[in-house]
Write a structure and sequence with these properties.
Shape: globular
Number of helices: 5
Radius of gyration: 11 Å
CATH topology: 434 Repressor (Amino-terminal Domain)
Largest sheet: none
Number of domains: 1
Strand content: under 5%
CATH class: Mainly Alpha
Structural class: mainly alpha
Order of helices and strands: HHHHH
Length: 71
């Protein structure tokens, strides 16, 4: 599975993989594997990414087009 939304969000924020990795406490290489879909993203990393980008996990997983996080 490719995670297109995390790539799009990172690009929209004009961030590097290294910067996002540092923000959620991951090495750049690990983040790159997740972004490319070479590895599945564990739930705790999905939650960290959703918090970082202020979106829902469902949005990251393309289960909805509504990026608003849950209350």
């Amino acid at each position: 599975m490719q995670y297109k939304r995390i790539r799009e969000l990172r690009g929209d924020a004009d961030l590097t993989q290294t910067k996002v990795g540092e923000a959620i406490n991951l090495p750049q290489r690990t983040y790159a594997y997740y972004e490319s879909g070479q590895r599945m993203i564990p739930p705790e990393v999905l939650c960290a990414l959703a918090d970082f980008y202020h979106v829902s996990v469902d949005y990251l997983l393309e289960r909805t087009d509504n990026p608003d996080p849950y209350e």
